[in-house]
Design goal:
Length: 407
Amino acid sequence: MTGGGVGVVRDLRALGSVTRLLILSGFAFNLGFFLVLPYLAEHLGGALGLAAWLVGLVLGLRTFSQQGLFVVGGALTDRYGARRVMLAGCALRIAGFGWLGFAHSTWSVIGSVLLVGFAAALYAPALETEIARQAVRHEQTDKVARTRTLGLFLMGGQAGALIGPIAGTALLAGGFRAACLAGAVVFAVILVALHRLLPAPEPRTAPEPVTPSTSARSGVGELLRNRRFLALCLAYGSYLLAYNQLYLALPMELERTTGSQVALGWMLALSSLMVVLGQLPLSGRVAGAMSHAAAVRWGLLLITGAFTAAGALPPLAGGLLPSLVFVVLLTVGQMLVIPGVRAWLPDLADDRRLGLYTGALSSVSGVVVLLGSAPTGALLDTGGGLSWFALAAVPLIGLSLVPRHRD
């Protein structure tokens, strides 16, 4: 399969209607998200006049209500099925964006933002669980490598992340409320499409001989005893902490080497564009060449190289060279790590618990990011190339934690 537009269309056709719908849902989810959220801080601090600390609190609460509660969405997915949880997430996101567009008081803003975040905590784990199941099914029945299916899913999400801020900028001409309502419309379209086109799960042949609470407790206990999964969570957390430096270390580096952050938007757009254009051909090459564990290790090694290069390279090309190399290597590493981890996850979890494991992966790694953000920020305050070399230890530690692959 080729990596061009024709190859993408051919791949989508080969995967069937359900998987195509899930990939398009991932695209639309990010499109609706990035129509609004990149401009939330400016709206809160500018139009609503909230203090900077309060803006930070609101943004932090949104992140917690989303990333921190992924494990809840995953557990509900196992209990009620991906379709129901995704529909509930869409409905809550529509309500949240509509509320946010009309929110003026501090408590109203906080309530709407929490609702927006919790909606994603329902929707995203359910979507990721179902696309992982479909990827395994295609691998078994159609001989399509699961990393290729998951690569298409990642590519679709990044396309939404690339287009969303551009569309959001245009919509902001009509005010922040217009962007919020447009985001709500996007999720309304997803809701209708999923309700009409996503098949309901097949009924279970026999009821489980345990109560839901007992089942949930046993699932969590099983998860906590799964050392290989927990090691993968920590390794993935090191990747997320490293990737977050696109939004923390990179702006500081551009300010240091060029005197401004003008190039930041272009750098972030380059990262998204690389995923959109390069994910499918890279996934195709990796699928038959290495195991999921090897893909994760190589990705973390490239990310380690990204930080090392940023600290070692001279500030050529107007001071942009270190930042440019950092973005390119970090993005290629991302294109290996994410599909590798997502493709590996079904092999580490009982299929009945796949939602719980999918949500726990995001929640545990989110805790790693939360705990590591303040120390990395303090490290960056020291400035200079030494901070980049020290940050290279983050993905390197993750590399050492990746468990061995088992067939």
